Amino acid sequence: MLAQTTYGRWLPPQLSEHGGKIDQLIDVLHVFMAVLFIAWGIFFVYCLFRFRAKQGHAARYEPVKGLISKYAEIGVGVFEAFLLLGLSMPVWADYKNKPPAESERLPVRVVAEQFQWNFHYAGKDGKFGSTDNSQITASNPIGLRSDDPAGADDIVSVNEFHLPTGTPIYLRLTSKDVIHSFAIPTMRVKQDVIPGMEIPIWFTAKEGSESEKLREQMVQHFPIEGANWYKLRHMIASEDHKSSGGEVLLAKGADLGDSFVKGKELIESLQKAGVAELVMQPRHPLEVICAQLCGNSHFKMKATMVTHDAAGFNAWIEEKSKGVEFEDF
Ligand SMILES: [Cu+2]
């Protein structure tokens, strides 16, 4: 069902604390580039017309002495310097130079491989068990050592990234095989993952961006005059919905935007297919993807991201910390 996903036409929703500034930068850059593109394009077409070959006109070879073009060029240069020195560098420095304090952050090791994401949590004791590549097996993908007591309660989550909102997450990224790129579009996080290196990256998910809340926002049920009306926001259809006569009411991939779903037959079709969640999918899935073409199954290198409030996350750690089983020893 979740094979087809899309992030919409512009930027995906922004759920991290630092991401607003990055979005602002992207917006400013795009608007500025659009203005330059249109202005230079108009000027180019004007020149083609104005200075076209004409009978009895010879070209002059001295440069133009007009001041307008000079001022325009200086203006563009000054604005570009402002973009780099005034906007980009402070935003980037603010984000990259200040790792969260050790006492506040949640450390998670991320071990990438063709084609999955392994998330290693320290568990209840807060201590990471040591790993050994020679102990890697199918059920122990990061090679956690069975003789290290610190690793007894460690959690290794394959393709499922659980995190609390409002807490700085401190990731240490490494790879078992080739270069991957750890990317969470909704958190504005992207970092190359390189074998033999451990690269730190950090971010904080905004409070209120818990998966449960988001899901509730996405699908709301409205009982009106005895019929179920669905308000399906930010959803796309994952299959065709047809009337009894075979007419397509809602085509696969249709984006519902913010509109109400209307029409008796369509609602019946939705109901027949089960609850709305089964036939529709969020337009903005919360997921970790690989942004580096890392092999023939790169496209399916994805992890689900599940955001919790602090209590929900602690409950998850509690539940999963029961101990790692090493079946293959
Ligand atoms: Cu990859």
Instruction: Report strand %.
Output: 15-25%
Structure class: alpha+beta
Give the name of the CATH superfamily of the domain at 106-209 and 286-320: Cupredoxins -  blue copper proteins
CATH topology of the domain at 106-209 and 286-320: Immunoglobulin-like
Tell me, what's the shape?
extended
Total of helices: 6
Mean pLDDT across all residues, rounded?
79
Series of secondary-structure elements, N-terminal to C-terminal: HHEEEEEEEEHEEEEEHHEEEH
Task: Please summarize the sheet with the most strands.
Answer: 5 strands, mixed
List of distinct ligands in this structure = copper (II) ion
DSSP strand tally: 16
Describe this structure in words.
The structure is a single chain. By secondary structure, this protein is α+β, with helices and mostly antiparallel strands. Among the domains are: 19-96, no CATH class; 106-209 and 286-320, Immunoglobulin-like (Sandwich), CATH 2.60.40.420. It contains 6 helices and 16 strands. Strand 6 and strand 7 form a beta hairpin. It is extended. Copper (II) ion is lined by residues 180, 290, 292, 294, 298, 301. Residues 180, 290, 292, 294, 298, 301 line the site of copper (II) ion.
